[in-house]
Amino acid sequence: MPCLPRPFLLAAALVLTLGLASCGGGRPAAPPAPTAVSGLPTEGPACVVNLVAANVAFDRVTDFRNQRGCGITTAVSLYEGAAVPLNRPVKVSCGLAAAVLAWETQVLHPLAQRVVGQPLVKVHHVGGYVCRGRTSDRSRLSEHAHGRAIDVIAFEFADGRIARVAEHWDDRGPLGRFLREASQGACGVFQVVLSPNADAAHRDHLHLDVGPWKLCQG
Q: Which Pfam families match (predicted)?
């Protein structure tokens, strides 16, 4: 079981929640609409508090930087977003975790019901942080080297079906449609989205990052 971040963050999230609930004459506050991450803090305690308030399952881990310049600011080990677990924990920045949460809430959940007719129950990835250069230019650090990227390979649904990028991207049925629309929808949340439409290096996964550049090849 993942442990929650520092107690003062939980207290801050609780105060925030109670404050919102007290508005409107004591009536329960309506659930907030999904919000793009562009206006939300992506580093520091405020970002972590937002994850806590959204019931994201994660551990706060120690920030680090190595001699190559690789490292993560506001590092977390992410277990699941909005009640959908990852196949294994992934070490990323808080900003990347917030983007995964927004993507899951805004895009993946409604898309799974509309296209597949089943709830999404797991997101499969093959890594977040890794100290390496870019695929296109090894002399420049990848966003993976700062924990600002994740590579997603598949999505699992409640009936046991799994939409795999490597296998179903060109499929004309619901699994292929889900993958393509999930990729396109990610362009509204992440800064860079690279799919099999980008190049052969991404034939089996979706590269999603929150780096400084904007590029949608979903």
A: Extensin-like_C
Provide the residue ranges of all domains of the chain, joining segments of one domain with +: 7-217
What's CA 29's distance to the chain center, in Å?
Answer: 26
Query: Among all chains, which residue has been given the structure tokens 């993958």?
Result: 179
pTM score of the predicted model: 0.81
76's torsion region: left (phi>0), alpha (psi -120 to 50) or beta? beta
Residue 70 has phi, psi (to 5 degrees) of -80, 150
Adjacent-strand bridge partners of 155: 123, 163
pLDDT, tens digit, 9 for 90 and up, residues 154-212: 999 999 999 999 999 999 999 999 999 999 999 999 999 999 999 999 999 999 999 99
Question: Residue 215, Cα to own-chain centre: how many angstroms?
Answer: 17
For residues 107-126, b (16+ Cβ closer than 10 Å) or e, as one string? bbbebbeebbebebbebbbe
